[in-house]
């Protein structure tokens, strides 16, 4: 963290802990410079950041005042209301378009969910990989065992203690990213034609897996702060022969919420009556802004019913394609499905990541990234509030690096994206996150990068375009 | 090649070209040493190798004579006779056992099909990977495009010209090994319950994919020299609603044959009546001992009906998990299936391999490996003939590094493997290569390594055990 960021952070912490109350005047730039032993210009930069993050506002000729930080939840999107019956997933063409969109560097990609890959704390990992390659023994070039490298499974079992799970390394299978974990899990526990309940909006990759496996999805109403509605789920379970649940309960993509612990436990209870398997996507779990990170549903599972899926794609780097699944009682079925689709997972990155974790590099990196994304979230929310029309609803992510924005009903974000792309900014249209084309007035934006003028301008571009579309409608 | 190997090679070539006829006396050690300007001991070593490879035999006090090299085909296994109706694949437990078998270095693994990973011609590839990692840009850590790296698809399109294919890079999708290519292809063109015709014996990985996708297989009788019986296939097509064919026509695993070009063409004709898609597994194609390599079925396909699947697992290194599929007219369906199971393929190895090919490293390596495996084949066949009971039938591979051995009907190679494992030698039991537990008296052995005393002893161990089992039966 730069000096001004440290100063800003310490003030923000005090506000959060209520040492400074809403409306209260904050220390002057001069006194801040004195107490923190920094230059005037550093103190000024700290206040600019606090403003950007929405902690403080400057009142001309008077100074800086605490503003109501808790306002974000007042502008939250509504509880989602998807169609309450099983549907066949569509939208593959649209997903393909998003995935195949040109990625030249002059486009500000607010659309994709890729972590910060320039972080200095990631360097030791690439160094380890380079060294492993240089002295490449035959074993690094050969097939790794089907379950995955012993060393990596051991380290993952240790990491998962943070989420409350006590697993043996043999409870874990290494996969080609979280996508393979999800896909192998789905296929292990369902037959074509089965119905799967999902949170909604939901990550398009898992929705497309449901489609490809010939399954139907029932999208359950989901609250932007607490996640899947347990009441709605209970009703759906009574009404339909649901065979599995798939959800992302911690640092959800795209909504950013973390289900409260009580909800996680109740979900387990509720589904135990049906002995229902739960696919828990935990890919963003370690990027929770709260430390220690929230427990997973799996950590409360005593029946082996939860298949926990995750990867290093959001915490380290997606190009490595290393994920894992802890499939509980379904381990043999998942192993078969994993074998037939990719045989073993690539060898060298498994050993490199295991070494990186063992050296403490993972923890160091995650700590940095959590703080960075936390900070970027607040800046990002500030920008959206500033540049988007009044009435825009914004999620309040508890981890990760994506924001969900809900616009007035008349706006179609597919069209919006086409237009912003002409100005070199891409967004992820909301309809990708529904199997039935809902959320056409929503979008997902990422705030991976450290705040920059370029990104602020990108948000401004999108905001202005939304305003223009609204005006055109009048 | 060592000096004595060069000398032996030149003699072998002359025998092959009929300059020396069966039964004819070969030059004396002394004259060999003179004409090739090598030491007496080098000439002696050359003859020892020719003996091992089955080109020559020494007659006491007389010298070396050409022996009937064409005898191998006389001892070929019979045309396979699998059950002529669709079956559900079993044998997953057995495959899992093979794959999860202990791989400590004191075991001679004749069971697995892993290329020589110690070859010096592979070093430039690991160097490129090390360098790419050292200067890792963010792009190397990020998701590669869904289709795969442009540079690699271009190089593969160029390589495939050798097999007679003229493809555009966009006709190719990069996959996580050949396994994903096969699996995504199968799922793209079939529905659960469908029947797929396969050659038999057949690679267990593709058989298990058929099982996992809820398909039935009909195993077509297959000739050890010419491959799948077109007559039997024609009958099966008339009798059953077959939805796809899957086969490995070039340097087949496990039988080693290459289908004659005429058969490849007739297969296309035959299936065009039914507009039937063909999954062509070409993973060993570039390891053909004949140069230029034989054309693929795909090279004759004008209708986009052939889905060609391959990878660098046998030519370079399986731990990289980089393969590809050229799915013809099914490209969009295959892309969807690929996306839902693994999203994109790992980034860095794609760029490394592309660079390796561009620098000429691939061609150099393949040329070396072809020669090495060709030589090892002949040594290996010599050993099996020497150490196995009379009546043993042996395949005569045209490429790659696996041998198929058929024993007397009473021998169960699963039991054989249990016993040889106690002496630290593993073999691949034949029943793995059938969906219905056929070939229980067969086994697959690899001859990847350069011939060594250790490997000769391993073959001797297996041969002795077979003899013992036969004696015990009496
Ligand atoms: C919620 C969620 N699950 C799974 C994935 C896929 O992860 P991976 O790249 O590790 O396959 C993503 C990636 O975007 C995601 O956001
Ligand atoms: C005929 C055949 N096809 C496919 C495969 C799987 O290849 P990969 O390791 O590239 O997935 C193998 C590997 O043993 C094979 O022998």
UniProtKB/TrEMBL annotation, chains A, B:
Keyword tags: Aminotransferase, DNA-binding, Pyridoxal phosphate, Transcription, Transcription regulation, Transferase
Domain HTH gntR-type residues, every copy: 1-69
PANTHER family, sorted: HTH-TYPE TRANSCRIPTIONAL REGULATORY PROTEIN GABR, TRANSCRIPTIONAL REGULATORY PROTEIN
GO molecular function, one term: transaminase activity
Organism: Neptunomonas antarctica
Protein name as annotated: Transcriptional regulator, GntR family
Keyword Transcription regulation applies: yes
Sequence similarity: In the C-terminal section; belongs to the class-I pyridoxal-phosphate-dependent aminotransferase family.
Family matches, as SUPFAM superfamilies: PLP-dependent transferases, Winged helix' DNA-binding domain
Superkingdom, natural source: Bacteria
Keyword Transferase set for record: yes
CDD domains per record: AAT_like, WHTH_GntR
